[in-house]
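Lab meeting prep.
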Amino acid sequence: MKRMYVDMLTAAGRKLADEYRAKGKPDSLIVQKDTRYFENTVEGNESAFLRFMVLGAMEYYKNRTIEIPPSLNAHQLMELSDKGGAVEEYVEDYLEIADGKKTLQQDILTHFRTTTEIEEISFKTKHFFSALEKAIKDKGPDWIHAIKYNGRTPAGKGMVWKNVGFKALTP
């Protein structure tokens, strides 16, 4: 079922919503229009939007129809998923307390993106880092020695998690 986006904050939008209701459209399909969609969603992701539009145009000219590409379905699933919960699961499954170990936060991000396939367009890096810090703090008193600071490891420099390492995964 198709959603109808209307600006409920304007008289014209409310009138349009009433017209939809009079035609029998359910209220659950009449949703508030994001009037700042470009600023909230597109800005910073222009290349992904352009790529989507170009791939769609290429598909249309090739087949004269547009099928929804699997990458878009995957992206939509990632958009709707609980990313904070995904970070908590990731910390549980892949990170551990390791006395004296130093792990670059960027290495954790890279491993997270690889294992979960949640890309930058779906989950901004700064939001990931906030969720990572919260997930580590929420692990309880055993993780009190996990300390984040700006430092250096043999792998490079940047934000470092001291006493945090990757679990040795058994196949």
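Slide two material, second protein:
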Amino acid sequence: MQKDIEVNGKKFTIRELLAKEVDDINFDNKKEALQKQVMMSTGISLSDYENLTLRERLAIFKAINEVNGIEDFQNPAK
């Protein structure tokens, strides 16, 4: 599954992560975990990742959660 999004005039394609990719992420290091998830899901380079705005990164991460069936942690459950 994948989803196309547009933020600040930039287009990103978010793909579903494989379980084995997520297994290799060190979630004890939150910064590294976020970076790896965004880069693996979008295919962007480290340079592109470092130049994302906060709005872009948040929109990408929200789409990553949707594509991978992860509940939206930013909105409280009803």
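Talking points for slide two:
The beta strands are 2-7, 10-15.
The mean pLDDT is 92.
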